[in-house]
Amino acid sequence: MTSLQQALGVKFKDITILRQALLHPSITASRLESNQRLEFLGDAVLGCVVAEKLYEERKGLNEGELTLARQNLVSTAALAEIALEQGYDKLLFMSFQEEGYGGRGNVKILADTVEAVIGAVFVDQGYQCAQMVIERLYKTKFAKMETSTILTMDPISSVMNFSKQLGLEPCYKVVKEGVEHAPKFTVHLSLNGHPLGWGTGRSSKDAKYAASQYALKLLESKTKQEIEAIKKPRN
């Protein structure tokens, strides 16, 4: 925990809160003991800080552009990248079974961990310190925050445009799990019966966004012949 505190630039008053941020639900007896509540809080704090940063530094963007920019900066992919940069994949506590399933490389788990750490800082140190930590974690991304990059078309729109080029319509199947006050959504994306990706999130919109990101990465790796094959329905 000492090295993590040094990396964050924070000395915790209650170190158990930081430890909790690294506890994946698979290793705890109760979900209340895992990092999920901290993740929920960290998600809100992160969204607020990034929104404020964009509002102050990108005065030429309208409301829709600000929303898209924030969505890209706090996306699952962006957070997972930060988690790997900070080495959170090595610090996570999870069950052997979850680890065997590739949990340490799971982008959703990595993204959740970043949010949980931010939540832990907020609980222990308050908003200003959490803001400082986010600035530190996002130092590279904020430095490269060119308008052309943060306003790249969102994955859902990109998938829709790609589908139209093939004369097809993407199919998103949504599965809702968990309790009412803390649901978990999983979205499976397919095109003409061909599975392209899946994603999870606290809302169907977040899960759809993650599934579209997954699909775009898969499509980028396909050959022209493989793309053409998608035009043929899969039973």
UniProtKB/TrEMBL annotation:
Record keywords, A-Z: Endonuclease, Hydrolase, Magnesium, Metal-binding, Nuclease, RNA-binding
Gene Ontology molecular function: metal ion binding; ribonuclease III activity; RNA binding
SMART domains assigned: DSRM, RIBOc
Residues in DRBM domain copies: 154-221
Domain RNase III: from-to ranges: 1-126
Pfam families given in the database record: dsrm (PF00035), Ribonucleas_3_3 (PF14622)
CDD domains: DSRM_RNAse_III_family, RIBOc
Top-rank taxon, per record: Eukaryota
GO term, biological process aspect, one: box C/D sno(s)RNA processing
Cross-referenced SUPFAM superfamilies: dsRNA-binding domain-like, RNase III domain-like
First-tier enzyme category under EC: hydrolase
EC numbers, comma separated: 3.1.26.3
Reactions this protein catalyses: Endonucleolytic cleavage to 5'-phosphomonoester
PANTHER family given in the database record: DICER-RELATED, ENDORIBONUCLEASE DICER
Stated name of the protein: ribonuclease III
Origin species: Guillardia theta (strain CCMP2712)
Lineage: Eukaryota, Cryptophyceae, Pyrenomonadales, Geminigeraceae, Guillardia
